[in-house]
Design a protein that fits this description.
It contains no helices and 31 strands. With 304 residues, it is mostly beta strands.
Length: 304
């Protein structure tokens, strides 16, 4: 039995946890449209309020937070006491965007709303490489009979460059980098698969093809959806798993090592912090909680 510690409760669909050096943890509250900081004494502070739908979050090279804003792709639905993302509501949607958030002032700045003339639909998750560039996924929108086909992007933090690197993808969600920075991983939610691509340069990959078995790291059986992910120090992909609520740990060779059940079918994110990065912070979004546990291995130190 895993001993989870409740770090914060009564959160409105928390996602995108970021463990900061001072021991605090920042999360987005997607349904409350804000970014919240949980201090070491477990008090809460609102860092910023943002329209749309705050989603994935990462600390950038300048000490600011970089936010994937899905534009308000999801409405709020409550079923059996759990909160779920509800159907797309066009009246709530402001368009997807990548934003910079000043941790000290709460100022929110739009960096990107389009790429090559095409609107970002529902940016979801983000990770920085050693060069200070950001990889991010666009999860897209599902509305009625329409289902976006989207991709993986690479962009600079100064707003000067954005490119679509991988297309097509089906609902790409969590994204991460291998310890040596040479492999890009991402999860596709409804496929229940984690894909991989070889990074050949700054914001470049070689020969990705979704039909190539070598590009599929792992596919989970049955009805298991995938959300965000993080990498541990052994290079394992630790991916938040929906329906079968928990964290599924996948080795770099594609073997499922373990599944850590959390009791929330909407377990959406994981990040590492604490002493030697041995503390895993996990968002139980359906229950509105941020919990922690001692991880069996140290997490991978992020670039920033």
């Amino acid at each position: 039995m895993i001993n989870f510690v409740e770090v914060a409760t009564e959160l409105s669909f928390p996602e995108g946890p970021v463990a900061l050096p001072d021991g605090s943890v920042v999360v987005v509250e997607m349904m409350k449209k804000c970014i919240t900081r949980i201090m070491p004494n477990l008090s809460k502070q609102i860092v910023a309020e943002t329209a749309g739908g705050p989603n994935g979050l990462a600390l950038g090279p300048d000490g600011a937070l970089y936010l994937c804003n899905n534009g308000g792709s999801f409405s709020k639905r409550i079923h059996n006491g759990l909160t779920y993302p509800g159907p797309f509501d066009p009246d709530l949607y402001i368009g997807g965007r990548i934003q910079r958030v000043d941790l000290n002032t709460g100022e929110v700045t739009d960096l990107y709303t389009h790429c090559d003339g095409l609107q970002l639909r529902g940016p979801n998750d983000i990770v920085f490489d050693a060069n200070g560039g950001m990889w991010f996924t666009d999860h897209g929108i599902r509305h009625g009979r329409e289902f976006d086909v989207t991709g993986i992007y690479y962009a600079k933090t100064d707003g000067s460059m954005i490119r679509e690197v991988i297309f097509p993808c089906q609902a790409p969600n969590g994204i991460g980098l291998s310890p040596d920075g040479k492999t890009l991983y991402w999860a596709e939610t409804f496929n229940g698969r984690v894909y991989q691509a070889n990074i050949t340069g700054e914001g470049e990959v070689s020969g990705f093809n979704a039909s190539n078995p070598n590009n599929c790291l792992c596919g989970l059986p049955g009805l298991q959806y995938l959300d965000s992910l993080a990498i541990d120090s052994d290079g394992n992909v630790c991916v938040a798993t929906l329906v079968n609520g928990g964290i599924t740990v996948i080795s770099p060779s594609g073997k499922v090592i373990e599944h850590i059940a959390t009791g929330d079918p909407m377990t959406t994110n994981i990040c590492f912090g604490g002493t030697e990065l041995r503390t895993a912070y996990i968002t139980l979004s359906g229950l509105g909680k941020l919990v922690s546990m001692t991880w069996p291995r140290p997490g991978l130190k992020l670039n920033f």
